[in-house]
């Protein structure tokens, strides 16, 4: 990374952590040169980068100042209100039609579900993978069958412990990505025709998994900042034969919502009283912008009803397809499901990731990744505020890499998706996040890619297209 980018990222961190506050004056170019022993052009480049990200502003003859917090111009969306009865799912064909249209690398990936692959230490991971393949113990092809590589599961157990949860390696099952983990959890506790509770809106892959397994869903209202409504969930548990809850509690896809720690404890206790397992899709937990991570659900799970599903795909190793389930009381059932479904997860990749975690450096990578995503969020929010029409509502997350926008009612998200795609830009239209294809005037934008001129111009274009349709 160049020197000016390093300076910009460090200044951005101070702004995002509140050390530098809105209205504060940044040190002058001359002062910064003296402090860091760098050239004026380097400081100027760093300040221009911060300005382009929407974090600071230049004032004539006064210098550079921290901008007022972004995301305040638009109000946040309100609590969703899905219809409270169960739904049989017929969504996969519709979702695949949308997703097939955004695979072209020439398309600006505002509608993608993945962050930029250039955010990750793929060269270093590649060296670990090459070493693992060269020195593979033939016995590992047997010993690393489910539940998986011993050292990788031990390293994961240590990370749980660092976050306040006591999770034995024995209850961790290594999977081929989080999606396999979610499917295994659903298969372990449901049968075709059963009913599961999901939040609304929800990640479309969960809808696809439920449809594939012949499950019905009941959609629970959620708030774009604080997540699923506990009152509505309790009502559903009282009046419907819910067999499991499939929820995202940390930086949910698509809204970015995070369930506060106190309400998370109440949620786990509520499900415990009703003897209903929680399948937690938690692939974004490491991408928190605040200094402290969210409270882990396994830390408040005394009875083992939480099946915690995560992976390295969003925070370290996209394409390696390594996930896991901290399965609690369901570990044996999920291990058997894994054996019957896909037998094993690729052994050299497990060994490579275990070696990477053991040698350290993961937390340094995560700190840099979080700063980068927070800075990119600020830049995209600034572009949204500048170019989207009046009446827009914006959910402003404090982690992950998604923005959820509620547009004026007259804007058709599917038509906006088509119009943007015609100009080489993808967006994720709201209906793919609902069993009933609701949220027809909402879109999800991805800020997990560099906030360069190409991406910010694309945000501006989508805003103008939305404004034209909102008249």
Describe this structure in words.
The protein has three domains: 3-66, Winged helix-like DNA-binding domain superfamily/Winged helix DNA-binding domain (Arc Repressor Mutant, subunit A, Orthogonal Bundle); 90-117 and 364-469, Aspartate Aminotransferase, domain 1, CATH 3.90.1150; 120-362, Aspartate Aminotransferase, domain 2 (3-Layer(aba) Sandwich), CATH 3.40.640.10. Helix 9 (204-212) links the parallel strand 5 (195-200) and strand 6. It has helices at 3-16, 29-36, 40-52, 92-100, 122-134, 140-143, 150-162, 177-189, 204-212, 230-239, 261-273, 331-341, 347-359, 362-387, 413-422, 453-469, and strands at 56-59, 63-66, 87-88, 172-175, 195-200, 216-223, 227-228, 242-247, 278-281, 306-311, 323-326, 393-395, 402-406, 428-429, 442-446. It is built from 16 helices and 15 strands. Strands 3, 4, 5, 6, 7, 8, 9, 10 and 11 form a nine-stranded mixed sheet that branches. The two termini are 44 Å apart. The model has no long low-confidence stretch (mean pLDDT 91). By secondary structure, the protein is an alpha/beta fold. Helices cover 42% and strands 14% of the residues.
Q: In summary, what is this structure?
A:
GO terms for molecular function: DNA binding; DNA-binding transcription factor activity; pyridoxal phosphate binding; transaminase activity. It comes from Zoogloea dura. This protein is an alpha/beta fold and 471 residues long.
């Amino acid at each position: 990374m160049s020197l000016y980018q390093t300076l910009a990222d460090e200044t951005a961190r101070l702004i995002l952590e509140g050390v530098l506050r809105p209205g504060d004056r940044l040190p002058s170019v001359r002062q910064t040169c003296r402090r860091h022993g760098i050239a004026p052009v380097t400081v100027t480049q760093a300040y221009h980068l911060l300005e382009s990200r929407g974090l600071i502003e230049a004032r004539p003859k006064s210098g550079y100042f921290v901008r007022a917090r972004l995301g305040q111009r638009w109000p946040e969306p309100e609590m969703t209100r899905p219809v409270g009865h169960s739904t049989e799912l017929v969504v996969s064909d519709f979702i695949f039609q949308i997703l097939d249209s955004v695979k072209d690398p020439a398309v600006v990936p505002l509608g993608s579900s993945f962050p930029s692959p250039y955010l990750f230490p793929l060269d270093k991971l590649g060296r670990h993978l090459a070493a693992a393949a060269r020195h593979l113990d033939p016995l590992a092809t047997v010993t690393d069958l489910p539940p998986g590589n011993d050292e990788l599961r031990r390293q994961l157990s240590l990370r749980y412990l660092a976050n306040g949860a006591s999770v034995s390696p024995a209850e961790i099952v290594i999977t081929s990505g989080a999606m396999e983990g979610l499917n295994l959890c659903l298969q372990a506790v449901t049968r075709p025709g059963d009913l599961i509770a999901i939040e609304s809106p929800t990640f479309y892959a969960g809808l696809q998994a439920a449809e594939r397994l012949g499950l019905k869903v009941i959609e629970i209202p959620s708030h774009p900042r604080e997540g699923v409504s506990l009152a509505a969930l309790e009502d559903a548990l009282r009046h419907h034969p819910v067999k499991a809850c499939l929820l995202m509690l940390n930086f949910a896809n698509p809204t970015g919502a995070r369930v506060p720690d106190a309400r998370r404890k109440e949620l786990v206790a509520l499900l415990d009283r009703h003897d209903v397992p929680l399948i937690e899709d938690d692939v974004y937990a490491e991408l928190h912008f605040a200094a402290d991570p969210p409270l882990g659900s396994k830390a408040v799970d005394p009875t083992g009803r939480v099946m915690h599903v995560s992976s390295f795909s969003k925070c370290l190793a996209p394409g390696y397809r390594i996930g896991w389930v901290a399965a609690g009381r369901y570990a044996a059932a999920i291990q058997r499901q894994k054996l019957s479904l896909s037998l094993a997860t690729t052994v050299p990749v497990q060994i490579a990731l275990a070696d990477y975690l053991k040698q350290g450096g993961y937390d340094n990578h995560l700190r840099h990744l979080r700063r980068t995503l927070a800075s990119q969020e600020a830049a995209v929010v600034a572009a949204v505020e500048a170019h989207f029409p009046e009446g827009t509502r914006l959910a402003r997350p404090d982690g992950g890499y998604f923005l959820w926008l509620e547009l004026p009612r007259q804007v058709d998200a599917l038509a906006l998706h088509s119009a943007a795609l015609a100009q080489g830009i993808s967006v994720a239209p709201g209906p793919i996040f609902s069993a009933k294809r609701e949220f027809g005037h909402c879109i999800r934008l991805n800020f997990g890619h560099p906030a360069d001129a190409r991406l910010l111009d694309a945000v501006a274009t989508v805003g103008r297209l939305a404004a034209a349709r909102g008249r």
